Amino acid sequence: MADQLVDREVASEQAFVDRVYQQLERAGLAAQQLAKEGHSRGRLGHEGGLVERDAMVFQAAKRIAQLDAAHEGLVFGRLDMTAAVDAQPRYVGRIGLRDEDRDSLIIDWRAPAAAVFYQATAAEPQDVIRRRVLRCTGPRVVGVEDELLDAEALSEAEATGRELPIVGEGALMAQLSRARDRSMHSIVATIQAEQDKAIRAPGKGVVSISGGPGTGKTVVALHRAAYLLYNDRRRYESGGVLIVGPSGVFMRYIERVLPSLGETAVALRSLGEVVDGYRATRHDEPAVADVKGSARMAELLRRAARQQAPGSPTEFRVFWRDDRITLDRGALGRVRRSLMSQGRRNKQLPRVSAALLDAMWKQVRGERGREQGREKFDDDMLSRDDFLDFALNWWPPLDAPTVLGWLRDPEFLARVAEGVLSTEEQRLLLKSWSGSTPTPQTGDLSIEDVPLLDELRYALGDVPQKADDERDDPMELIEGGVDIQELMTAADREYAPTGRAWAPPTHSIEDDGFAHVLIDEAQDLTPMQWQMVGRRGRAASWTIVGDLAQSSWPAPDEAAAARASVLEGKPVHDFHLSTNYRNSAEIYDFAAAYAARVGLRADLPDAVRRTGVAPEVVTGVGDLEAATREAVVGTASKVAGTVGIVVPAARRSEVNAWLASWPELADDARGARAAIDSSVPPSGDDRVVVLTGLDTKGLEFDGIVVVSPDEIEAESATGRSTLYVVLTRATQLLTTIG
């Protein structure tokens, strides 16, 4: 009987979903027709037609993209209200959609009318009798789960002939028991009331979302980004939304969430990709990362950006009329300090020749020289190749990788690091840069190098550029691609002294700002990473997600000061999530006991479900590979979803080799031998993967097998926090070996 009821309800919802998809297809055809009509307007032969064309084609393209993004799980919710409010069911979906009569078929989940779907509870049903979640695979309804919120109202409805059967164990428990796969699918249908408050918090200032493992912080933050885009689309689409996560694998894990909610105007970047033009996927060893992440590096880099370029000329001599003119170290030092006092280094490029000529003119004492005057002196100097070459070589346009490369010289590093870094810290830096200079071209950047490059970009400034309509300004000669040999006059050459145009950057530091910045795993950001991200959100609103007990940064006070500096003057709205939806109570009790045993000040949420299966602890292992194989094979046979093998960083290659040799897991582990930070993500069929402790940040798996947890704990000063994170990644089964 129960199965027949479920089948009947699924068939009923399928009929409605079929109708929705038919209307979605009509909407897509209408959008395509709008685009076609827009193109035809462009052939009218007047400016008005062109304007109409652009507007119509733009709107059509936006609508088509929105409709395309909505196909997965288009309809996911249904509300049955009391008769006094609405006797007809209200359906909630990823986008809003109307039928051919302009009546609402589904309500956009972000619309005010849909808020009750998340906010209603049994204590405060808000006129909702039954809340139903539709589980769909593409256009097919595969199941329904109901929550009865008002039993008295249900009786009244049934008395009037309304049938509202209650199916399933409740949407939340069903969501929690489902297998995890490679992508975090939106759990928009199971967001609870405390989470909804954070999602719909005020758009200005900072929304800080804290909570222990498994409380849904990431999902809430992503849905908040979608909500902001919906609520103030003009602001956030024009300014952009930046979402920053801890790693490339994490970003691939969440990348489907916002598109599945109908939002595509969002930049998703890992910490190694925040700065345009750079991409890093590897971490430095912990001791090096601690030095590079420290706020002290900002002072060191500021000093480096002000130094004379290594190998640049230190003297210039010329004879003019009756005078021998010399620019020695002292004179050049005074010119350099004068220029640097006026702003960033590259910004001074147009002033370099004039500043040198000023210093040289002061040495003209002879009667003939004074009679001919300053203008003749400038013209004569600017016509000399030796002076022009000297000016460019003494003050060349610089980029961040070049200056970072200077720090590979022990003498240079010691000079700029005096009083900032210890000798041992300098040694660690030199060791990390002992190969080629870390640049995007060499591919040798670490994630910790990227904030250093960003700091240098801002210390150096952009090479000046000019607008196309300012062609009477000598600054035009700085632009790349200009044939300045033909345009150059004596006065112009002052600004491009060798006749070679200075190439401007492809991306200006002035273009870095976003309207909203979302940071996940914020507790891991170093002071230098806070500065890097902060530059992209000076005028932005923020969403910050984190849990201090999971931090991998060993100096929390330093990071807190950097965060406070970035957010200074912005109102902060704090939200705390207290319910663990991810782990079984057995798994989280095990992790919480570990946190208490090692002295972590962990935020301990309440786990809401039990499986009756306690974590397994395997000790006294003689053959580590055999024990790991047995645990992984056993876990994979018991769960339908993903299995993570978490290992110390030093063992990753070794365990990947083991996995490749286990025939019973060959299909499940296909592709797992590739590095977890590869630019090519594993295929959707791969269930088993090898990760380090840091790789697991923000992820979850049906089963976790932890290999040599004592080695993970000993990897860094924050190894205990990392192991605590690892122990909270499993939803169903957890095994530790070693």
From TrEMBL:
PROSITE patterns cross-referenced by the UniProt entry: UVRD_HELICASE_ATP_BIND
- The UvrD-like helicase ATP-binding domain covers 190-584
Tell me the domain of life: Bacteria
Q: What is this protein called?
A: AAA family ATPase
For this protein, the record's PANTHER family field holds: DNA 3'-5' HELICASE, UVRD / RECB / PCRA DNA HELICASE FAMILY MEMBER
Write the record's keywords in alphabetical order, separated by commas: ATP-binding, Helicase, Hydrolase, Nucleotide-binding
**Which residues are noted in the entry as ATP-binding?**
G211, G212, P213, G214, T215, G216, K217, T218
Answer whether the UniProt record assigns the keyword Cell division to this protein: no
Keyword Hydrolase assigned: yes
Spell out the SUPFAM superfamilies in the cross-references: P-loop containing nucleoside triphosphate hydrolases (SSF52540)
Note the InterPro entries from the entry: DNA_helicase_UvrD/REP (IPR000212), P-loop_NTPase (IPR027417), UvrD-like_ATP-bd (IPR014016)
